[in-house]
Amino acid sequence: MDGNGRWATARGYPRFYGHIRGAARVKEIVRFSRETGIKALTLYAFSTENWKRPEEELSVLWKILKKYLKREVHELKKQGIRLHVIGEIDRLPKDAGAELKAAIETLSAGREMNLTFALSYGGRAEIVEAARLIAKDAVKGRIDPARITEADFAAKLFTAELPDHGDVDLLIRTSGEMRVSNFLLWQCSYAEFDFPEVQWPEFTVEEFRKSLGLFSSRKRRFGGV
Ligand code: FPP
Fold first, then answer.
1. Closest CA to 66 of 92, 95, 27
2. What is the CATH classification number for the domain harbouring 152?
3. Whether residue 64 has its Cβ less than 6 Å from ligand 1
4. Is residue 221 part of a domain?
5. Would the CB of 201 count as within 6 Å of ligand 1?
6. Is pLDDT above 90 for 220?
7. 2 Cβ inside 6 Å of ligand 1
8. Is residue 99 part of a domain?
9. 91-134: pLDDT as tens digits
10. Which of 9, 13, 17, 19 most suits a substitution to test ligand 1, by most atoms within 8 Å of the C-beta?
11. Is residue 220 part of a domain?
12. How close is the Cα of 22 to the center of ligand 1, in Å?
């Protein structure tokens, strides 16, 4: 969800206002995804690198997240949405972490769509953690190193509970930046990419439809012919 800060600054607003407008888009895009039949939607809300931002901006971000959860959790439950968080949830401020854990619990029976927030998330850190877990299993004799499969490894990632272990079909990064920035590195192996020029606060349902249209037109061969 890139470009909140630039969107705000270009219009003479403080950066945090871009995040407020961005959160309104989150609400619309989540609802639309559920209605469209998308089974998993993962939103990169905060990377491990984002901790470098000024304290003031960070505290607004956590406030927005808490407000979103408080306001939306009942609606999400009605829609049958299950919530997951990937990333270092323990690094988040206590109240935000508690609100997230409560929302995950409230929404645990959701079967219609998996909504995942990536918070204090980094793809390399996730892969290293999975390697640690597999190594522990090997040391304990629970797995034979010579027989470790891709599926065994994927089952140790933060996305293990998601459909297809979280394999990404379509990655959309707004604001025209053409970088992956440490997002779902393993899971994006066969992903299609779209880099719309609009900033995240401008990413309306119409823009999302365009991305989905583009995705439908791509021929995915997964290395075959
Ligand atoms: C990237 O834009 C966006 C973020 C770091 C925060 C995203 C957060 C939200 C959309 C709101 C809260 C989220 C939820 C899940 C309710 P940027 O600030 O890096 O923009 P810039 O590159 O223009 O500076």
1. 95
2. 3.40.1180.10
3. yes
4. no
5. no
6. no
7. yes
8. yes
9. 999 999 999 999 999 999 999 999 999 999 999 999 999 999 99
10. 19
11. no
12. 7
Instruction: Assess whether the C-beta atom of 123 lies below 6 angstroms from ligand 1.
Output: no
Strands 170-172 and 113-121: unpaired
Q: Is the CB of 5 under 6 A from ligand 1?
A: yes
> 204-213, pLDDT tens digit by residue?
999 999 999 9
Q: Which tokens go with 85?
A: 């968080």
Q: Using CA positions, which residue lies closest to atom 8 of ligand 1?
A: 45
Residue ranges making up the domain that contains 103: 4-214
Which positions are catalytic?
Answer: 2, 50
